[in-house]
Amino acid sequence: MPAADRLDPSARLPWGAGPVVCGVSPTSGSPGALVVAAAEAACRGVALEAVMAWRAPRTQAGPGTSPPPLLPWREEELAAEAEARLRGFVTAALGETVQVRCKAERGSALRVLRHASHGAALLVLDAPRRPGGSLRTGLVAPLLLAKAACPVLVLPKAGERPAWSARGVGTGEVGLAGAGGGLAR
């Protein structure tokens, strides 16, 4: 193998040197994941893409009937609101100077993030939320670990350190990604 190929990981990795994709929660804004994803994109010299899934609000239906379909003008309005919300999360976490492609897509978080993982160099996810919410709370990250088309980095909960021991981790030699807002040294 030529020396240049040994130094360029994208030359032999099946997912290549696409963007670093950050899955952004519509509730928390995933500030820690955005900071880590921005650092990864900068280190790799690739683009950063923030992706957030959104769903239309459920409308009430009478007994034995289906809810009415979402009107096209309403869908465009909801999509624009989701895009603006995502842009706000990105600006709050990273400021105005970092270039980020923002994509708010209608659908489940699993479907939207799985689709975004195709062609990505890395998918970064915030720590799974604590149990107690809906049945799906915290299930997206484990499912994406198995179904994503690229490597997935799931941040630990703020303040948690891995239970395993690895030389250098947490000692200043190797940074530990934390959901609390960046790389801990």
TrEMBL record:
Domain of life: Bacteria
UspA domain residues: 19-156
Xref: InterPro entries: Rossmann-like_a/b/a_fold (IPR014729), UspA (IPR006016)
Descriptive protein name: Universal stress protein
Organism: Aciditerrimonas ferrireducens
